[in-house]
Sequence to fold (380 residues):
Amino acid sequence: MASRAGSSSRGRTGKGALAEEASTMKKVKEWSNWTLKKAKVVVHYGFIPMVIIIGMNSDPKPQLYQLLTPV
Amino acid sequence: MAATTVKAEPLGQPPEEKVAERVDYLNLPCPIPYEEIHREALMSLKPDVFEGFRFEFNKGLNPQFGLSHSVYMGLAEIPSQSSETIKIPTAQYEFGANFMDPKLLLLGRVLTDGRLNARAKWDFTDNFSLKANALLTNEPHMSHGMFNFDYKGTDYRAQFQLGNGALFGANYIQSVSPHLSLGGEVFWAGQHRKSGIGYAARYNTNKMVATGQVASTGMVALSYVQKVSEKVSLASDFMYNYMSRDVTASVGYDYILRQARLRGKIDSNGCVSAFLEERLNMGLNFNLSAELDHSKKDYKFGFGLTVGQ
Fold:
């Protein structure tokens, strides 16, 4: 009985370890999906403004009105 | 005495020339990057043909920073199952910003429907560079992105690619002689469950470039470009897919004149195309494009103007 209980508890911890591993993998996948989705939104809205900011701060520094006028 | 010394010099020269011609295998030139192996053939045979009206205005605020505004009015093709092509009239405006530094290159273009096309290239050291390319849309699951890590050695280049949809790829190209370079690539696409391996070779001299590429996806591509003179070059291309038994051969010309560049090609699919870029004035370019596909009865004509400063 004790041995069966012992083996069943070992069996349960064995399955428990596998379940833990599977759930950490799932968590890692979920987090990486979440970060990729957020990164995609950030890049989609922020890439062009970032290029404009980097360009306006480069030498020789252009004026703000030059950004808007056609000439 | 003077006569003997004069006679000795010409005899001395030919052995020196022969020594200079011997190949120094430890000092070969760096090869072209793997993805640009067909660059000359691609530039001559596949110009950017379009249909409709295209106007582009490039404004440079700085030698490094510029903005571009582009308007396109014309017909866009919708992929359809039947053999007829369906075209619907569209008009779009595209805003772009680009920053070009010797070490950092950033290019972004955004369309009126919210699609963003972004490219970035960063050289962290002389030999190592990182490139990224993304096409982002508002529709879910239609966006693509790819990162490339490049390493440039003395006579070889290696690249590792990482893309969305679990796409992994690597390629390597090595200069084997001053004119010949050989390379190979492998890729693995997790989402489509495909993987492949390919080999490429490129032989170039000052007057000609010949390339060949074979891949396990069934593609065999050969191309040959001959520079007939300073202004004229002729190119031909052959592509064969041994899995789908699809063959395409094309022959084209490329005239690079002082004020104009004219490219034309004819295809084995019955497609004839031509593209003219003419410089009307300083900073004003006029483009004419025509593509006649006789087998599909699809005729496309376009004209455009590019105002660049």
In short: The CA atoms of residues 15 and 56 of chain A lie 59 Å apart. The longest helix of chain A spans residues 2-56.
